[in-house]
Write a structure and sequence with these properties.
Elements: H1 9-19, E1 24-32, E2 35-46, E3 49-60, E4 66-73, E5 83-87, H2 90-119, H3 125-128, H4 132-144, H5 156-168
Antiparallel strand pairs: 1-2, 2-3, 3-4, 4-5
Helix pairs in contact: 4-5
């Protein structure tokens, strides 16, 4: 039986550069009792200012299973991790992390609109937020592009958003 080629630091770096070429990567490899473990830290910077940090951990579970854990943070070297995601491919782990951030942004935008509407006690929500149609289009676009998301394409929320857009036109 032919033994699988060992995944090296060079292979890991090439995989990272292929998917996330905008980061400068430092790869470390460590072996533990529970299997192989590699860790890479990618940074984006502007001059001497760090603008983004991405940590990728690759764990070899057994001969055929790999798990990727990704974490990211904003500016600075001591900034806490903003989010984390785990999946069986690097691309899916990164996309899941990004989808989580997009969902948080959408929810925070809704909260901001509620606060704006609350300051205008005599106006309806539609009057307080004249760009509601644009927001609904943005939500529709997000839900349509995430069919596996629990609130994704075809969900009750997505159908209601599409109704609002349909009634506006």
């Amino acid at each position: 039986m032919k033994k699988n080629k060992e995944f090296t630091k060079k292979d890991f770096r090439n995989e990272l550069l292929k998917i996330m070429p905008g980061y400068k990567w430092t790869v470390r490899r460590q072996l533990f009792d529970d299997g192989k473990y590699m860790e890479a830290i990618g940074i984006q910077s502007s001059g001497f200012n760090r603008t983004s940090t991405l940590l990728v951990i690759r764990r070899q579970k057994d001969d055929s299973h790999v798990e990727y854990e990704v974490k990211s943070s904003g500016t600075g070297t001591r900034t806490p991790w903003s989010g984390t995601n785990t999946d069986y491919t690097l691309a899916r782990a990164l996309r899941g992390l990004q989808s989580g951030y997009e969902y948080k942004a959408m929810m925070l935008r809704g909260d901001a609109m509620d606060l704006q509407a609350g300051r205008n006690k005599d106006k309806t929500l539609r009057d307080a937020t004249p760009n509601m149609y644009a927001v609904m289009q943005e939500i529709d676009e997000y839900l349509s592009s995430n069919p596996k998301n629990y609130i994704g394409s075809g969900s009750v929320l997505h159908r209601k958003v599409q109704e609002v857009i349909k009634n506006k036109t």
